[in-house]
Amino acid sequence: MESSSSNGSHVLGIFVVLVVFLASSRPASSQNQQASFAVNAGGAAASKPSSGDAATGSFGEFITENVQHYVLSERKYAGKAKALDAEMSAAEAGAVRYVVSPDGKGKFRTIADAVKAVPEKNKKRVILDIRPGTYKEKLLIPYTKPFITFVGNPRSPPTITWDDTAATRGKDGGPVGTVGSATVAVESDYFVASGVVFKNHAPMAAPGQKGGQAVALRVFGSKAAFYNCTIDGGQDTLYDHKGLHYFKNCIIKGSVDFIFGFGRSLYEDCTIVSVTKQVAVLTAQQRSKSIADAIDTGFSFLRCKITGVGQIYLGRAWGDSSRVVYSYTTMGKEVVPVGWDGWNIQKPKHSGIYYGEYKCSGPGALSSKRIGWSLVLSDVQAKPFTGTHFVYGDSWIQPPPKSS
């Protein structure tokens, strides 16, 4: 993703706004995408329609479909026992554990060696008990090695760190790009991590800095769960790339678009931290297909905390059916009143962007001042997003194993 920045101003109604432009091209496209952020310089935002007014036509049908999808899922689960899927159940029954320790007191000194030792087409849960320390490693968990677990001691967690950026030159001499910048890339299914720090320690990129994207963790595999982990970086920290993902009690730090991707993910009891004194954007969820297909992906934040420095946007639309919902979330004063940005979507109100809030609190939870096309959800509309059912978690989410 490449970026550039410029400043301008314009009048919106009777309000004066400061506009900050950040142009970005994602790894999914070679075209530059430009975003504008309107920061209120004095006074409230334009009056906000009710969610009923905003949900008209095909978009209204999409909201209804979300609710119906939830109701059908609940009926399905009620009609049979909530059991683990067959592959996962068999893998857990045959679990094995290896110790990784840089001092040589384990089976492996490096995490990379431990991952290499996992057989191709693995069918057993392989638990890597990673002892405290800093592991300077760039890791890929290939799609051929499912059921791998990283476990650390949450009181003294191991840190996996690297410093690639999108501009870093790869083996072919060209830049690795945003995808290639990840410290840890998980492409396999059924991955679990508990009590681990994933870090990209590249210098903090200035807003708009070309090639400054620096991913700490990329998750492409499905049915991946993260407990008590820290995901630490700047621009594009967490590439929630694709699949069903669950984050519980995690800390996620970053600046611009630092939770982004196509995933369908639940963030529960997580702390989301802006680390830039300038403009931060928490999410850039992508959904550029039709509204009808948008139900497959989205980010839901449940009982989270948003804090940090600078001016924080809850999200901007990377695609015309981008979907993000915050429920029971505590929002710090740094969250800007308008809350959301349409990025390069010309008519956000009619595009299928689903940005909603439900019973949030804190000085930044100013639902009455939000941009007019975001939603304040009703109890019924919020239900699909406020539990592990959002990621079909009854069949695959389990408590994490403890470190030995």
From TrEMBL:
Sequence ranges assigned to domain Pectinesterase catalytic in this UniProt record: 99-394
Keyword Glycoprotein: yes
Reaction catalysed by this enzyme: [(1->4)-alpha-D-galacturonosyl methyl ester](n) + n H2O = [(1->4)-alpha-D-galacturonosyl](n) + n methanol + n H(+)
InterPro entries (alphabetical): Pectin_lyas_fold (IPR012334), Pectin_lyase_fold/virulence (IPR011050), Pectinesterase_Asp_AS (IPR033131), Pectinesterase_cat (IPR000070)
Pathway of action: Glycan metabolism; pectin degradation; 2-dehydro-3-deoxy-D-gluconate from pectin: step 1/5
Gene3D superfamilies: Single-stranded right-handed beta-helix, Pectin lyase-like
Annotated GO biological process: cell wall modification; pectin catabolic process
Keyword Protein biosynthesis attributed: no
Leader sequence segment: 1-30
EC number: 3.1.1.11
Pfam families (alphabetical): Pectinesterase
GO molecular function, one term: pectinesterase activity
Active site residues per record: D257
Function, in words: Acts in the modification of cell walls via demethylesterification of cell wall pectin.
Family, similarity comment: Belongs to the pectinesterase family.
Protein name: Pectinesterase
Higher taxonomy: Eukaryota, Viridiplantae, Streptophyta, Embryophyta, Tracheophyta
